[in-house]
Amino acid sequence: MYVDKKQANREQLFQAVLSLQTLEECIDFLTDLCTVQELAALEQRMEVARLLMNGHTYEMIEAETNARSTTISRVRKCLAKEQSGFQLAFDRLQKAERSQAH
């Protein structure tokens, strides 16, 4: 029973994120949902992912982001997955940027 409720809660969270339609809505939702520290951790992981994808070393990433090597390693493992959420998100961001540039 507890596992089903936990899964339902997780899916509700994901559906809530998917329902957001603008950057402003996303900002409002995430700042309501997360503490300042939690949001900073998410932002740091995104930056670590971007830097890893651009070929930066662990040392460079640690110096630039203050991320611990365990965080960098975790993000690297996520990027190595066949269906990386980080990779998908960055691909879509790049595609959106290219279409806005034209």
UniProtKB/TrEMBL annotation:
NCBIfam families: yecD_yerC (TIGR02531). This is Trp operon repressor family. InterPro entries: Trp_repress, Trp_repressor/repl_initiator, TrpR-like_sf, YecD_YerC. Pfam families: Trp_repressor (PF01371). The lineage of its organism: Bacteria, Bacillati, Bacillota, Bacilli, Bacillales. It comes from the Bacteria. It comes from Domibacillus enclensis.
